[in-house]
């Protein structure tokens, strides 16, 4: 009996309310709009559902991939022989004084909006970040001189040996890095952020200002995975790419954005192979021109 059949039976018997899709195109669930079918895709609504499902997957030795809002990933055109767990329906937010506790699937934009509505400041930088809280924790997401490391207090995650709550001092947070980038089998379940009381009008004005700056400078009208490369020490990736003469460069349907060279965009019908080909071209050209090796920020799933 195949793992798919065995798992389908377990889901029916033990998780009958779990949304469970077969051969679901990943392009429907990623901001790049690229990717073939996943053998199975699950949408748990609670941490408890996710924990039970994770137990089944470990028992069967099935490859598992966690997906939040799908904003920083690139999947292969032929799809993947795996179960993709999408956390977007784990969306609870609770307030206790100046602390917000949110599920991993809550989008950073929604969390920032919730904070503003509650009269709290500290998450304005996150208003325009398209990813989820879980993915943001893993990558210590940030923008406009703010990052999650500024406000996180603790994270609860599922590890192979069970559920643990980790305080911020032990999260190893740095630029686009956390404990979880070194622990790929760990699954973020929820996180707490500590904010401050703020003037609602001032918080909203700051959020609107940052969103306007983002719209003016970034190609939000095209599918992409956000910034394609990490910021090299002492440089800006977009400037290096532009100085190398690559603004607007194409491979198939993938293009270096004419609006912001730090973004590779899908102009329509781009494949994973197109994007990877363009990334390699950018890396080689920039290295030849400036001696700087660009490291992708986009997570490539193979």
Order of helices and strands: HEEHEEEEEHEHEEEEEEHEHEEEHE
Quote the beta fraction.
Answer: 25-35%
Our measurement of the CA-to-CA distance between the termini, rounded to an integer number of angstroms, reads 26 Å
Mean pLDDT: 95
Count every helix, treating DSSP H or I runs of 4 or more residues as helices.
7
Query: How many domains in all?
Result: 3
Query: Over all CA atoms, what is the radius of gyration?
Result: 20 Å
Please explain how this structure is put together.
- The chain has 3 domains: 3-86, Uridine Diphospho-n-acetylenolpyruvylglucosamine Reductase, domain 2, CATH 3.30.43; 93-203, Uridine Diphospho-n-acetylenolpyruvylglucosamine Reductase, domain 3; 218-300, Alpha-Beta Complex (Uridine Diphospho-n-acetylenolpyruvylglucosamine Reductase, domain 1), CATH 3.90.78.
- It is 29% helix and 27% strand.
- It contains 7 helices and 19 strands.
- The strands form 6 sheets. The chain has a 5-stranded antiparallel beta sheet, with helices on one face.
- A hairpin with a 2-residue loop joins strand 16 and strand 17 (254-256).
- The model has no long low-confidence stretch (mean pLDDT 95).
């Amino acid at each position: 009996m195949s793992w798919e059949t065995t798992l389908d039976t377990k889901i029916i018997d033990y998780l009958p309310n779990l949304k469970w899709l077969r051969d679901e195109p990943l392009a429907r669930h990623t901001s790049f709009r690229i990717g073939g079918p996943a053998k199975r895709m699950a949408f748990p609504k609670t941490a408890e559902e996710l924990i039970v499902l994770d137990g089944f997957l470990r028992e069967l030795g099935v490859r598992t991939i966690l997906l939040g809002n799908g904003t920083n990933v690139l999947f292969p055109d032929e799809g993947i022989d795996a179960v993709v767990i999408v956390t977007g329906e784990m969306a609870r937010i609770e307030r206790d004084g100046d602390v917000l506790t949110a599920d991993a699937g809550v989008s950073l934009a929604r969390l920032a909006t919730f904070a503003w509505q509650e009269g709290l400041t500290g998450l304005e930088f996150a208003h325009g970040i398209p990813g989820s809280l879980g993915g943001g924790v893993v990558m210590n997401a940030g923008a406009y001189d703010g990052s999650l490391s500024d406000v996180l207090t603790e994270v609860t995650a599922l590890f192979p040996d069970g559920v643990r709550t980790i305080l911020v001092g032990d999260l190893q947070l740095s630029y686009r890095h956390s404990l979880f980038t070194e622990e790929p089998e760990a699954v973020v379940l929820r996180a707490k952020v500590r904010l401050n009381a703020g003037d609602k009008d001032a918080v909203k004005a700051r959020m609107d200002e940052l969103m306007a700056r983002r719209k003016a400078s970034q190609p939000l009208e095209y599918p992409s995975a956000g910034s394609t490369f990490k910021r090299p020490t002492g440089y800006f990736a977009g400037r290096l790419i532009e100085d190398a003469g690559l603004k607007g460069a194409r491979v198939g349907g993938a293009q270096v954005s004419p609006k912001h060279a730090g973004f590779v965009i899908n102009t329509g019908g781009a494949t994973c192979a197109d994007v990877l080909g363009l990334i390699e071209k950018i890396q080689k050209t920039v290295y030849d021109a400036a001696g700087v090796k660009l490291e992708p920020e986009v997570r490539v799933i193979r």
